[in-house]
Amino acid sequence: MSGFGRSRTTGGPVQPSEELLKAVETLSEKSGFPFQISPEPVPGTSLFVVHTPDHGFRPEYTVTRGVLGFRAPFNFPDAAPEDSFFVIPVDIKLLSPDPVRNSIDVNRASRTENFVTGSALGNVAVLLFSWHLWDRVPWNRRAHTLVDHYSHCIRRFEHAENG
Fold first, then answer.
1. Containing domain of residue 130, as a range?
2. Which tens digit of pLDDT belongs to each residue from 43-76?
3. Confidence band (pLDDT; 50, 70, 90) for 4?
4. Is a pLDDT exceeding 60 seen at residue 163?
5. What is the mean pLDDT of the chain?
6. Distance between CA 45 and CA 38 in Å, rounded?
7. Could you tell me if residue 122 is left (phi over 0), alpha (psi between -120 and 50 degrees) or otherwise beta?
8. Residue 127 falls within a domain, yes or no?
9. Domain membership flag for residue 43
């Protein structure tokens, strides 16, 4: 039996570990946003959806608040969260065209289906940002937390490059 999304001992769905649940709780406390974690991994993966339903977005966007999240593996902190993050709604745009690309589309983000299946979000499309969040400093389970990952997401999302 595959280890993806199933318990190796019972064959049932993998549940978030106590360590991962505690990390999400700490993220909520430190960020000030009520983060949630999916009760089981996205089907076909070993990744849990971690998200907050009402996060503020930059004033340059057509939507000022929405969902912000990412996916974390069942073996966190030994493995890093995915090197990406997502927002909902997917139709978020810039209020004014960015000066480099002359476009109101959000740079380096794409509509993605089935990314959050199995979470409280249902099976909605997300706007996925693949930003290589850990390209400057490799993930270190002893030094990095979900709070660090969230900080990387926010830094990338709020960076002018997105516009």
1. 18-162
2. 999 999 999 999 999 898 999 999 999 999 999 9
3. very low
4. no
5. 86
6. 13
7. left
8. yes
9. yes
Burial degree of 54 (CB within 10 A; 0-12, 13-18, 19+): exposed
Q: What are the structure tokens assigned to 154, written together?
A: 């926010």
Cis peptide before 41 (omega within 30 of 0): no
Q: Is 146 in a helix, a strand, or coil?
A: helix
Number of domains in the chain: 1
The pTM for the full model equals 0.86
Which residues 6+ apart lie within 8 Å of 101 measured at CB? 107
Burial of 88 (C-beta count, 10 Å sphere; 0-12/13-18/19+) = buried
Contact of 108 with 94, CB cutoff 8 Å: no
Q: Is residue 149 part of a domain?
A: yes
pLDDT digits (tens, 9 = 90+) for 114-134: 999 989 999 899 999 886 666
